[in-house]
Specification:
The structure holds 2 protein chains of 2 kinds. By secondary structure, chain A is α/β, with parallel strands linked by helices. In chain A, 39% of the residues lie in helices and 15% in strands. Among the domains of chain A are: 36 residues, no CATH class; 245 residues, Rossmann fold (3-Layer(aba) Sandwich), CATH 3.40.50; 118 residues, Severin (3-Layer(aba) Sandwich), CATH 3.40.20. Chain B has 22 helices and 29 strands. In chain B, the strands form 6 sheets. In chain B, strands 8, 9, 10, 11, 12, 13, 14 and 15 form an 8-stranded mixed β-sheet that branches. Classes of the chains: A alpha/beta, B alpha+beta.
């Protein structure tokens, strides 16, 4: 990516781009100069295979003594860049690193010209380019896992190894052999170095400028450096693996001296050290992510590097090099490349699925797809002691009705007729593939509670020689992870099969709503939208009935019975005691009453055109909808379109209590708490009736989202907020959201229950739902976007052999009014070694859990406390790893488990999110809104929400069909000659650099110069040129990926709006005081060290 | 004594007044000994085609406590242009406009023939008539259909500038907004919740949120139409709209499960109707017309629960204090009635159902406001349809026979005080010098409000002679009473009708004959009956009967001629001769007897009894029986079982029912089809005659009577048999087997027995 970015400004660079592959190769091959390397190369190659199996060895280490310092520092950045582009590339190698580094500067927006590095890159690339066949990847994975298991034992070796050159430190830094492994040819060094010099010189200035050393960096350095030998210290850190970041060693070495030596020595070093490193790395890295970016070393390196040419100050820059620390982009790319091509087969217990950012197919072979359930860890500690020690939350993020890609079949529906689904007599778990049939098939043993149950005669089947039922593969419930049962009448409310659900549209027609054009727009849209109500399977038309209500401070119900010539309006002004004024004709079938409905929708905006009513009510509206459903004896969904704080005299009346002075005080939590308990009570009634509430807000000022969203939240609904809604600007977004919301398939009146193997227990639940007891999650409505995060705790020992099983059963009413049970099963491994736990974690899920935990915490504790808790927990997790799993190393080194190496950066994003650390421009409503949104987000959503995707648009060739690779969310990554897209699932920005080529401006915006671009533009002109098409296509595809429409905002560099945009550059320091990634990492390191000491 | 009869008749025709005594005993003591109180039946708006209203305002006595109106009884000094008030003797100057008067140039109000005169007040903007329909939708389909048609028809009868409104109710109450185009709009209220007038007005958006202070200013009536225009619209504007709306009215859509009554929120619907008018058109003539097809079953004013297995209260339950909802419901409706009366509106109740509809509880709504009460079996009967249509009949001037918001004030000369009134009125609680401390009926005031009137509405007004025995009135002195009725004419004019009457005083000791001769037994019977019925509303039935009996006995003792302890010697003069008979029938009437009547029926009968004029009242007390035979022209016959003969056709008019009864032979003849044979055409005519006569009555009467055509042995013959005097019963078989009538299977005493006892008691010295 970096390369791409730099392209425009730098001619040499730019050229290579298109030719990339070739170029690299040639460069690589062309490296004649690498005389010394050859040998080393060979050696290296040898190890490579080994590497793949055991990722580790510190290739980068090589650089150590001789060329190391400068090179290494330089490397880091390069490495990243390389990574970004090529996915797997390991940059670590001493020599290559320098090259890369140079490249990096080039890429920087600030523009120093980059250069030669180009050549070096190729080298890096080469290996990768070809390799990525899926087979290889899997092989790698396999190998890594194995090695991982071995890891713990190995550390000693590493130590032993150490002696040669103050190994300890070196080894510590090395760990990321993963990268190395994948990257056999790292040796290129000599060549790269040569070029590197050039690059270094040029790049230096910018680097220096860009890196201001953080205050924190300074103090720590001394302690860190102390133990290290100069050369090694440098080498080690510089080489540093993604996970391990050592703080700057530094001052010791004069850059110059190191520079000189480089080529020769490195290779040998490498080879010799490798073994030791490998081991260590194994220990430290989770096997899963084979290729690791090299991040590395830190700090000062960069600066020193930059200054290399000149004699100068090695010291000043005491800062971690951003490129040296684990990069989310890199991890994502790696996973994509490694795991995106093969379907994920769920047959094996405890497998860690690909990341949410990876596109992959799932084949259900007995466990639920990760689209339904993702866990923080796929290997659960056997005992609660272990769990406590590790502090890794055990949680599952469950999305029971997740939408599947068209290639994957939706769960089979099993009909067991009158008798209903077969269940364990004791724990009531549903029949699933893990149930053990015994006694020739006459009985089965429950896999959850071990109770032995009789098999009913009609279900009897013989077992084969393996003890498996002969019909196992004929029955979804015996062979699949996810499936559905048709529920019998026993599972229905009042022992009556439910009637088809209903949708009620409740439209605010107060002055604000009319004036903004909302009502007209909405009514117009509803006319066509009603044809697309969700329907089941092949049904010709939706079974869902619809009803309409408008309101200001009174409610207007409409009788739209098909027999009427005109709709009838019925006004209910008794808002204190809401009721439904009509039964017949309120909820109607769309096709039958189409004429009347159309007439109604035509008239609504006319009728209220000259309204002067500004006051609105809110609770009575929901109450009315709920009563209507109750009267009709069905479940359903209310769509509320609301504009203002409900101040009219009625139950649920609110007052404006927005008080920014409360921020950062103990009372801040009140801003998130509902103003009155009335809404909870109301929500409870709604849930009992199966009435789900979706709220569309169009506020011009404070509306108290915290209170208004209580009911949607507790009923499994969604909240959409369009501040200062104007038809011209927000129409697209609103309509798109509305369409999606109305059309999406929903399960009504649902109850979810999570059963687990004896030993653990679901103890806590997060999401949009209501719970009246401790086990049943009640959801008035549940759609394919909503997730429930469930936390587990031990209440006994788990058995390593049998593992831990989860069964999530969701009883719901389908869109057609069919009562069903959806069952998801998932088997997890259990471990007695902490290392297994750390190797099988998923950071994205962990973050999902932690964010939800924290966002709930703000209701009860001061925000500061919540933040501290998060930091502490994170530190404990990492410290535990360091203490129990990582090979011993200097305390000065930060060692992160492979699976969690992104934990700090993501956590930092959570910590600086608007809810936990609001900026001045963030309103109370925004915070409440976001808080509420996050609560039901799935892993993919939280991932991109907290760490936005930043896509350069002009770097990759226009013709390439794929999405451009993302870059890290930091201002440093922006080049003023480029255009970027940034999205986080809610917002979408198009950032235009100040010196973008005119041609680009012209072809995208249809204006002649940068200055003519309208800042804040929300629509790109439709132009017939490849670039415009591509960008618009990309925007469309991004929108399609998200559950909510993202409104585009065009931001110009150096423009006022840029502040808004920069808020999302989450690796940077934020205006509201949020730490930069680097700073936070340092802080985290400090915390960990405190814990360790 | 033809003169007195003539006098009475003449007075009635001229002034609409019938006094029980036309010569007044001159002292309190004497008056109380007369037994029948000094009282009159007043028909304030009696139709007087010969009385054109005068187009100016009346001249009032200047004494603030008097304010009597200049009348023919005043002494006038034409030269000094002074007149003396005949009530307080204040001397008043004539107003400037009267400067031209002289003996030969008198204003109308001074002419004796204008003892009743009507003034038209020109002040103030005329306010339109208002008709607010309150319609029950919990009806059977054909009932509702019929009702809708009737309502639609009625629209065409209303004056084009009248305001109409529509409220429908069932489980919910809907107030329909009539002004809007396209979508029909209505405000809906829960039928279970009682709302205050303020709440109702808020919810209907009748209170203006902005600048309430400004609009509260008096004298801005033009604001009203604006505010209320949504619910009450001039008929000419929304005729089509409303017709369509009525056409689209659906039965109450809420499901009624087996074994339940539909939920009917009559109480709330009425409350809203009252609140709506109260907020928009206070003190303007308005009719709330409630059409209901069953008892209120929920909310305030509910009369019975919705469980069908629990029947609606009966007299039996009420006696046993077993009517759960009655007291509360009654209270609710009384509160509404009082509010309505305060606002000058009236409530009509049209209840059509086979079972009771809660009239007992709701009666006060009509009773206190002067509204109509109509009871029928179904809206799909001519009884309802014609009755309803008749409400909108017009008089010879083309005006509706209805008046609104009337105030009746009574002024008396100083020897008299007014003790109370019985009729469709409420007290205005105006104390004054002429208000008696004793109350008869609604007393304690000299003014009453009668929100709805028609030309036949008649009040019983009771007086007390307060002149002390030792302060004799000079010979030839006359007592005077002035009735001042202010009302809104259906032409929307405000009018004042003034009736001033005078009667001679007589010393009861020396001139008892005079007084006796001037006794109006018909008026007395009705007035006593009203008192009895009034008492019956609050007292146990037997107590009332005992009281009536005692009064009768005392009257007989006072005015009978007899020898002590000799019943056979007992005689009553002509002017008293019919009185005991009236009392006999009154005792058997449904007004005092609840046996065989549901509480609703009793309420219904009593309602009409308390407002009809003397003739109708008498018919109610003692139904009229005509006999048709080949022997001669139809003749009135005794209301006696002896009149039921086989070869007669009887026509009985009880006011509420018209019964045609074919004697046994006639019935057989008819069955044999003689009427169709040309040679028996006279028989055909005989059969036809009573039908024609009945039709005549039916055409004239409001409410339209139940029309019963039956014959000997027919099940409906009971209507006749229950009314006639059971002179022949299974107990006295002397007529058995003879052709002298039909025995009645009853244990009731016959008139003969009654009279015997009366005589015995009257002559006895024991009491």
């Amino acid at each position: 990516m970096n390369v791409n970015q730099s392209a425009p400004p730098v001619p040499p660079f730019g050229q290579p781009q298109p030719v990339y592959p070739g170029y690299h190769q040639s460069g690589y091959g062309g490296q004649p100069g690498s005389t010394a390397p050859p040998t080393s190369y060979g050696a290296y190659n040898g190890p490579v295979p080994g590497y793949q199996q055991t990722p580790p060895p510190g290739v980068s280490r090589a650089p150590p003594s001789s060329e190391a310092p400068p090179a290494s520092t330089a490397q880091a950045p390069c490495g990243q860049a390389a990574y970004g582009q090529f996915g797997q590339g390991d940059v670590q190698n001493g020599p290559s690193s320098t090259v890369q580094m140079q490249r990096f500067p080039g890429s920087q927006p600030f523009g120093s010209v980059p250069l030669a590095p180009v050549v070096s890159q190729p080298a890096v690339l080469q290996p990768f380019g070809p390799p990525p066949t899926s087979a290889q990847v899997t092989a790698q994975l396999a190998g890594m896992q194995i090695s991982g298991a071995v890891a713990p034992a190995l550390p000693p070796v590493g130590l032993g190894y150490g002696p040669p050159t103050s190994l300890a430190s070196a080894s510590g830094s090395f760990p990321n052999s993963g990268l190395y492994g994948s990257y056999p040819q790292g040796q290129a060094p000599p060549l790269s170095q040569g070029q590197g010099h050039l690059g270094a010189q040029r790049s230096a200035p910018p680097q220096a400028s860009s890196f201001t050393s953080p205050a924190s960096g300074g103090p720590r350095m001394p302690s860190m450096t102390g133990p290290l030998l100069p050369g090694q210290g440098f080498g080690g850190p510089s080489v540093s693996q993604p996970n391990h970041v050592s703080s700057p060693p530094p001052q010791a070495l004069p850059p110059g001296s190191q520079m000189t030596g480089p080529p020769g020595p490195p290779p040998p070093m490498h080879s010799s050290q490798q073994p030791g490193y490998q081991l260590q790395q194994n220990g430290s890295f989770g096997p899963a992510r084979g290729p690791q970016p090299n991040y590395g070393s830190p700090y000062p390196g960069a600066s020193t590097f930059g200054s290399q040419p000149g004699p100068p100050q090695p010291l000043p820059p005491k800062r971690l090099d951003p490129d040296a620390i684990p990069s989310p982009i890199q991890v994502i790319e790696d996973d994509r490349n490694n795991r995106g091509s093969e379907p994920f087969v769920t047959g094996v217990r405890g497998q860690v699925p690909p990341l949410v950012t990876t596109n992959f197919l799932v084949r259900d072979q007995g466990n639920a797809s990760p689209r339904y359930i993702r866990c923080t860890s796929y290997n659960i500690p056997c005992t609660s002691d272990m769990a406590k020690q590790a502090q890794v939350p055990l949680a599952a993020v469950i999305k029971p009705l997740a939408r599947l890609p068209p290639e994957e079949a939706s769960p089979y529906v099993v009909d067991h007729g009158e008798s209903g689904p077969l269940r364990c007599n004791r724990c009531k778990a549903y029949m699933c593939p893990f149930m053990q049939f015994i006694e020739g098939g006459r009985r089965f043993q429950c896999c959850f509670c071990s109770c032995i149950n009789d098999v009913p005669p009609q279900y009897f089947q013989h077992l084969d020689h393996t003890g498996k039922r002969v019909d196992a593969y004929d029955r979804p419930e015996l062979s699949l992870g996810s499936y559905e049962f048709l529920a019998t009448v026993d599972y229905c409310k009042n022992n009556k099969f439910p009637s088809p659900p209903a949708f009620i549209f409740m439209i605010d027609v107060s002055y604000n709503a009319i004036r903004s054009g909302l009502v007209r727009l909405l009514c117009e849209e509803l006319k066509s939208l009603l044809d697309f109500l969700p329907r089941e399977g092949g049904a010709e038309e939706s079974a869902i009935r619809v009803g309409f209500v408008t309101y200001n401070k009174v409610l207007h119900f409409y009788n739209v019975k098909s027999s009427l010539a005109q709709p009838q309006m019925m006004v209910v002004s008794d808002v204190a005691d809401m009721f439904v004024p009509l039964l017949d004709g309120f909820l109607v079938n769309v096709s039958e009453s189409r004429a009347v409905i159309t007439s109604l929708l035509d008239q609504i905006s006319e009728m209220f055109a000259d309204t002067r009513e500004t006051e609105t009510v809110f609770a009575p509206v929901i109450q009315a909808g709920m009563e209507a459903l109750k009267a009709a004896e069905c479940a359903g969904k209310l769509f509320l379109f609301h504009t203002s704080l409900p101040i009219a005299e009625a139950p649920g009346k609110l007052k404006n209590r927005d008080d920014r002075k409360l921020i950062n005080t103990d009372k801040e939590k009140t801003l998130f708490q509902p103003q009155t308990g009335a809404y909870q009570t109301l929500a409870k009634e709604c849930v009992a009736q199966g009435c789900c509430v979706d709220l569309f807000l169009f506020p011009n000022q404070y509306v108290d989202v915290a209170t208004l969203s209580v009911v949607p939240q507790l009923t499994g609904g969604s909240v959409y907020k369009y501040a200062c809604f104007q038809v011209e600007n927000d129409q697209e977004r609103f309509l798109s959201d509305l369409r999606r919301d109305v059309q999406k398939v929903v399960g009504f009146d649902a109850v979810m229950r999570v059963r687990t193997s004896t030993g653990i227990r679901a103890v806590d639940f997060f999401g949009a739902f209501y719970m009246s007891n401790t086990t049943d999650v009640e959801l008035a409505g549940l759609d394919g976007d909503k997730t429930v995060t469930v936390e587990f705790k031990h209440d006994d020992r788990l058995n390593e052999e049998s593992g831990a099983l989860l069964q999530c059963a969701l009883l719901y009413t389908s869109c057609a009014g069919q009562r069903r049970l959806r069952i998801h099963n998932l088997a997890l491994n259990c471990c007695t070694q902490l290392a297994d736990l750390y190797r099988n974690c998923e950071t994205d899920t962990l973050i999902n859990y932690m964010a939800k935990f924290a966002y709930r915490g703000v209701l009860n504790s001061p925000v500061k406390t919540v933040r501290d808790t998060l930091i502490t927990q994170c530190a404990q997790i990492l410290a535990c790893y360091r203490k129990n799993c990582a090979s011993p190393s200097s305390a000065g080194q930060l060692i992160l488990p492979e699976c969690m190496k992104l934990l700090p950066v993501y956590l930092n994003c959570v910590l600086k999110s608007d809810v936990l650390q609001p900026g001045a421009e963030v309103t109370t409503d925004d915070r409440a809104y976001v808080r509420q949104l996050v609560t039901s987000m799935d892993v993919a959503e939280t991932n991109v929400f907290f760490y936005p995707r930043l896509l350069p648009l002009t770097k990759s060739p226009i013709e390439s069909a794929t999405e451009p690779p993302a870059v890290r969310a930091s201002e440093e990554r922006l080049s003023n000659g480029d255009i970027y897209l940034l999205e986080n699932g809610l917002n979408l920005f198009l950032w235009v650099g100040a010196s973008v080529q005119q041609g680009v401006v012209q072809s995208l915006f249809s204006v002649s110069s940068f200055s003519q671009i309208t800042s804040g533009l929300s629509v790109l002109p439709v132009l017939d040129n490849p670039l415009s098409k591509k960008v618009r296509g990309l925007i469309d595809s991004l929108r399609a990926q998200r559950s909510r429409y993202m409104k585009l905002i065009v931001v110009k560099q150096e423009d006022k709006l840029e502040m808004l945009f920069k808020h999302f550059l989450v690796e940077d320091k934020s205006l509201s005081g949020g730490a930069s990634y680097v700073d936070f990492l340092c802080h985290m390191h400090k915390e960990i060290r405190q814990l360790l000491s | 004594m033809a003169t007195y009869l003539e006098f009475i008749q003449q007075n009635e025709e001229r002034d609409g007044v019938r006094f029980s005594w036309n010569v007044w005993p001159s002292s309190r003591l004497e008056a109380t000994r007369m037994v029948v109180p000094l009282a009159c039946l007043l028909t304030p708006l009696k139709e007087r085609p010969d009385l054109p209203p005068v187009q100016y305002e009346p001249v009032l006595c200047s004494r603030p406590t008097c304010k009597a109106i200049l009348n023919p009884l005043c002494q006038v000094d034409y030269r000094a242009k002074l007149w003396a008030c005949n009530f307080c003797f204040q001397r008043n100057q004539f107003p400037p406009a009267y400067t031209g008067i002289s003996e030969v140039n008198q204003p109308a109000e001074l002419m004796p023939q204008f003892s009743t005169i009507e003034y038209v007040i020109q002040r103030g903007a005329p306010s339109p008539l208002i008709f607010l329909y309150v319609v029950d939708t919990c009806l059977e389909e054909d009932d509702l259909q019929a009702l809708k048609e009737s309502l639609q028809m009625s629209l065409s009868l209303l004056p084009p500038d009248a305001l109409v409104g529509l409220i429908t109710f069932g489980r919910m109450v809907q107030v329909h907004e009539l002004s809007c185009e396209g979508i029909s709009k209505s405000y809906v209220f829960r039928g279970t919740k009682d709302l205050t007038a303020k709440q109702i007005q808020d919810m209907l958006g009748l209170t203006k949120p902005a600048m309430p202070m400004q609009q509260a200013r008096p004298g801005q009536p033009q604001e009203h139409p604006f505010v209320s225009s949504r619910f009450l619209q001039p008929i000419h504007k929304i005729d089509m709209n409303l017709t369509d709306l009525l056409g689209e009215l659906q039965r109450d859509p809420w499901p009624v499960t087996q074994g339940k009554r539909p939920l009917r929120s009559t109480g709330v619907a009425l409350s809203i109707a009252v609140g709506l008018l109260e907020g928009t058109f206070p003190n303007t003539g308005a009719r709330i017309m409630l059409f209901t097809g069953g008892p209120p079953t929920q909310g305030p004013g509910m009369v019975v629960g919705d469980e069908l297995k629990v029947p609606i209260r009966s007299w039996h339950d009420i006696e046993k204090d077993n009517a759960r909802f009655m007291k509360k419901a009654t209270k609710h409706y009384e509160m509404l009635a009082n509010r309505t009366a305060t606002n000058g509106h009236c409530i009509d109740i049209y209840a059509c159902a086979l079972d009771q509809t809660g009239l007992l509880e709701m009666k006060c709504c009509a009773n206190l406001t002067g509204g109509h009460m109509v009871m029928g079996d179904s809206f799909n009967t001519s009884l309802f349809k014609q009755t309803f249509q008749r409400i909108f009949t017009k008089d010879f001037n083309g005006d509706f026979r209805m008046a609104f918001g009337a105030t009746l004030e009574v002024k008396t000369s100083r020897e008299l005080k007014v003790a109370g009134a019985i009729g469709p009125c409420v007290s205005l609680n105006v104390k004054g010098p002429c208000v008696s401390e004793n109350e008869l009926g609604v007393g304690g005031t000299s003014q009453w409000k009668i929100c709805g009137m028609d030309p036949t509405s008649t009040l019983g007004i009771y007086f007390e002679v307060v002149n002390q025995h030792n302060a004799p009135i000079p010979q030839g002195g006359r007592g005077a009473i002035q009735f001042v009725t202010q009302y809104q004419h259906s032409s929307t004019q405000r009018r004042i009708r003034v009736t001033t009457i005078a009667r001679n005083w007589a010393d009861a000791q020396s001139q008892l004959r005079h007084i006796e001769a001037a006794f109006d037994q018909e008026a007395a019977a009705v007035l006593m009956a009203r008192l009895g019925v009034f008492r019956a509303e609050s007292e146990e039935g037997p107590d009332v009967l005992r009281w009536l009996d005692r009064q009768l006995i005392r009257l007989c003792q006072k005015f009978g001629q007899y020898n002590k302890e000799d019943p056979t010697s007992f005689r009553l003069s002509d002017s008293f001769s019919l009185y005991p008979q009236f009392m006999f029938h009154l005792r058997r009437s449904p007004f005092l007897q609840v046996f065989n009547n549901s509480p609703d029926e009793s309420s219904y009968y009593r309602h009409h009894f308390a407002r009809q004029d003397l003739t109708q009242s008498l018919i109610m007390i003692q139904p009229i029986l005509y006999s048709y035979s080949f022997h001669g022209p139809p003749e009135p016959v005794l209301l006696d079982s002896s009149s039921i003969l086989a070869d007669r056709i009887l026509l009985m008019d009880t006011f509420f029912q018209i019964v045609i009864y074919l004697g046994e032979t006639i019935a057989q003849w008819r069955k044999a089809g003689y009427q169709d044979m040309p040679e028996y055409e006279n028989f055909k005519h005989l059969l036809q005659a009573p039908l024609d006569d009945a039709q005549e009555i039916l055409q004239a009467r409001f409410p339209m009577p139940r029309y019963i055509n039956t014959e000997h042995g027919g099940s409906q013959a009971r209507f006749l048999l229950s009314k006639v005097n059971p002179s022949q019963t299974h107990n006295n078989l002397y007529a058995w087997g003879q052709e002298t009538g039909a025995p009645i299977l009853t244990d009731d005493v016959s008139l003969q027995v009654f009279m015997d006892h009366l005589k015995k008691l009257a002559v006895s010295t024991a009491c």
